[in-house]
Amino acid sequence: MNFSLYAAKDFSTFNEYLAAVLACLLAFLTGMHAGWTSPFIPKLLSSKDYPFHITSEEASYIAIFGPIGDLFGAILSMLLVDRMGRKNTLVILGTPMLFSSLLIYFSYLSPVLLYIARFCGGISFGTVSTIITMYTSEISRPAIRGKLGVILMLLYTPGTMAVNVIGKYFSMYETAIFSALVTILFLCTFSLMPETPYYLLMKGKTRMAEKSLCFFRRTQNVEEELKKLILVVQRQLSESRRFQDIFLIDYNRKAFILMMFGRIFQQTCGAMAFLMYAQYLLAESSDFIQPQFAVVVIYFVQTCVTPLSGYSSDRYGRIPLLMFSCAGCSLCLLMLGGYFSLKDFQSLSLPISCPVFILGFFYIAYQIGLGSLMLVMLGELFSASIKPKAIALVNIMYALAVIITTKIYQVTTDYWHPSIAPYFFALCTISAAFSINKYFPETKGKSLEEIQFELKGNKKTATHN
């Protein structure tokens, strides 16, 4: 075996991995943004290390101002990605994350700055699943496209984990400095990476596309791949790219409806609501384990589960894994609701560690299917001609679902009972399981062209039957 040749061939993918990792530094930052409420809302509510009194109602709006920013981020992504390019859009819409960190640092002047900071961070959050997935898929060769796609979640979840660790030992202001430094690192390093060859060919910049390919392939011999890519881009540019085609063309509309509900299902199981209030939810378990440490362990397990999700979905299929995920999440939610009901309405002495273990298994079940695979299918179901617009619209619906489910959790917990939200989310997740099983296509082992063909043929087949 010629090991030196194997090593050289393997090293040829270095620039692709490098660019993907640098792009996904923004995913790490948005993970910090998403998990920020978990360590710091309890501190805000107790006025610890903060000069202003924050009520539970005000804290809920601090939490949901992030998803409101997501809406604007998704819209801006849709408007900029085909005009400015994938790389430039990531840099432009990653910059608000720096403003978010600075505003949090200066929020001791006024709590209003916290609302603005969460909104700015949300703008950057709204770009991640749209632009990063496009960038990584367009720079990578087919043999490693799946591996590069997983990097997003592999850095996003550690971001949520990191903010909980830092939030335990450092103040809100020190955490903001750390976030600002990582944002500067992202902006300074990723801005040096080339634009994707695909986008450059879209703009007729063949010479620049060739240079981009040479960088990512680490070779000057890219003529054959460049010719094939030119043909692919010409074919895709020949398709109609109008915004209304998302709704007017049958297979586009079907893909949009499926992924809209798929992204909503990700939130109607309560994943983001529990994430934002995790330490508050686990406060009563502090005698068993510190809430901050419990959250870190949960996110660490999620990080470990993410590669398993990708491997298992390629072996067993997307739909079986999504069904397993829905079943596991529903069971955990019913158990969590049952714990709060028995604790408050029955004279039973239940272990205070129950919510920790239940949430741990909930997030394992969530990450194995709903948390990871909906993002995979988001890049699989849409035609390339309308993908940026369709994904942006789907992400807008996702952000609205985050806002609604987070508010449902806060209202039902504060004004009714902590068991109401888990029972409600369990009912939604059971409904999601039936919908996924009945309507979602299996995409395992199929090319993007085969998936599009299946979407186009469903209506005809159904009519014939």
Describe the structure.
The chain has 2 domains: 179 residues, MFS general substrate transporter like domains (Growth Hormone, Chain: A); 223 residues, Up-down Bundle (Growth Hormone, Chain: A), CATH 1.20.1250.20. 80% of the residues lie in helices and 0% in strands. Helix 2 packs across helix 8. It has 465 residues and is mostly helical. The N terminus and C terminus are likely disordered. It is globular, with a radius of gyration of 23 Å.
- CATH level-4 homologous superfamily of the largest domain: MFS general substrate transporter like domains
Q: Specify the number of helices.
A: 23
Tell me the distance between the termini: 55 Å
Q: Give the % helix.
A: over 70%
Identify the overall geometry: globular
CATH fold-type name of the largest domain: Growth Hormone, Chain: A
Which class of the largest domain in CATH terms?
Mainly Alpha
Strand content: under 5%
Keywords:
465 residues, mainly alpha, Growth Hormone, Chain: A, 23 helices, globular, disordered N terminus, disordered C terminus
What is the secondary structure topology, with strand pairs?
Blueprint: H1 3-11, H2 14-23, H3 25-35, H4 37-45, H5 56-84, H6 86-105, H7 112-139, H8 145-169, H9 172-190, H10 197-202, H11 206-217, H12 223-238, H13 245-248, H14 250-268, H15 271-276, H16 278-281, H17 291-316, H18 318-345, H19 354-368, H20 370-378, H21 387-416, H22 420-439, H23 448-464
